[in-house]
Amino acid sequence: MPKIWTIVDKEWAEVFKNRLVLFTVIFMPILFTALPLLMVAIGGSQADIGDVTDLPASYQEMCGDLTGSACFTLMMVNQFLLLFMMMPLIIPVTIAAYSIVGEKTTHCLEPLLATPITTAELLIGKSLAALIPGVLVTWLSFGVFAVISYMLVQSPELLRRILDPMWIIAIGLVGPLLALAGINVTLMVSSRVSDPRTAEQVSMMLVLPLLGIFFAQIVGVLMVNAQIMQLAAIILVAIDAGLVSLGVRVFQRETILTKWK
Amino acid sequence: MIHTENLTKKFGDRTAVEALTLDVREGEVFGFLGPNGAGKTTTVRMLTTLIGPTSGTAVVNGFRVGQNDTDIRRCTGILTETPGMYDRLSAEKNLTIFANLYEVADVKGQVEKYLRLLGLWDRRADLVGNFSKGMKQKLAICRALLHEPALVFLDEPTSGLDPEAARLVRDFIEEIKTQGRTIFLCTHNLDEADRLCDRIGVMKQRLITVDTPTNLRQKLYGRKVVFHLRQADDALLARVRALPFIKDAQRVDNKLVLGLDDPETHNPVLVRLLVEAGADIQFVGELRHSLEDVYLSLVGSTDKAD
Ligand SMILES: Nc1ncnc2c1ncn2[C@@H]1O[C@H](COP(=O)(O)OP(=O)(O)OP(=O)(O)O)[C@@H](O)[C@H]1O
Ligand SMILES: [Mg+2]
User: Is B164 exposed, middle or buried (0-12, 13-18, 19+ CB in 10 A)?
Assistant: First the structure.
């Protein structure tokens, strides 16, 4: 078995025995999938509220010829789908925080570094162990959301807008990129602290830009659309590249051993 | 097997290991002794390529530290000072992970071999967290042996263990010693060093001395023989003292404590003389200084020099 997979396998065996991690990986997706679905369900069954002039101007523009209640549903669903994007961030950050700090508290790092594994293999293994569940769970949840929405929403117009291609970019591309950024930050934070919860909390600051967009959209300053998602993807690629190259330089064997205490 | 020249490690402006020049021969058990903070662990870490030396060179099993680090890691095993195991995983899983990382060809076979050696084959599925400390330590030693390395570093294998567990581990080290491996053993326990090691290096930032335990004792104290007599007096002591090969002689009650270089040759002469002088010899024994005396005087003398 290649060494990277040995590490991934080991991380999963260890980290999923942690109830908090397991809870995050299972409960978060259920919640974040249920919320937008609830909006779809309510919106679908509601009588038409008719007037859309209460909604922000940017929405009215986007809704075009949708009915008022459909437009409202769309807005709520879009909001919750933005929250959905927190998943590929929070799940990997949680896993990474526990996996790195766990290594320190079990004192297994030194025996591990004494094997012929390269530091790159070790770090990639740990990153993949955090990345894969986060991304898979996000994709799965979005799949479930798409299928159930398809069954619930009658108006093809509304369905087309709910399942906008922009979300493919968001979930397919921005999600994994966010996850990667989260993992890199967690790796660096974890190397400085001795409590996984602290590492987790510090890394969670990355959620702030997401929440910023969330609120900007509520007040109507900003509308997420394909362009914004593309821009976000490009920015994230740059950030990730920077973080990875920084990580490779920071994580030398000796540094890991003497500084990760 | 290990050859170092002026190996030095500095952390900032603190020197942990200074100009260490050392040879460890193939197949021997080399004891590395020194007080806390002497630089033992730092030396082991340099030799296992975990940290880089500040200056100097080291060759381990023919590979140069800093150049063929991966080769060195492949042919060495290490029991680190605080060897953690993955407590939430089974004994078998723990060993399997490391067998894979050490590129062992027959992972299953090796893991089974060592679990059986430890008598843990039936408990292979048990979580390591449930094992006793001594058992964990033995498991950690096995983890370092999975790839059958020619050279094993054991950094304080019995520290923090109760006497029974320590004994278990020590017996185990004696067992692996018979397999012809070179063992580099850091320890604070002098009896352990005495019992297990072929040669001992005493270290305190610098290497103070290297020799066999017997020679170390002799160098410092010479060899002493004790004659237990039914009755001893100062006249007898004076006769013995007059012999040319006696370096020093003391009487303690009815015992004569004699310092001499070659008891094998001179004891029979002494016995004859004492019998002719009418003494009744009850016992003859060698007075062994404990390695502790030797160690303390070696390490203590550098304190005064500081
Ligand atoms: N990563 C590090 N950073 C700074 N100083 C260090 C580091 N590691 C070790 N030292 C210092 O180097 C010296 C030697 O430490 P080392 O751990 O090698 O001693 P030791 O002989 O193994 O001691 P012990 O018997 O307590 O295990 C000590 O003064 C220690 O404080
Ligand atoms: Mg030490």
Answer: exposed
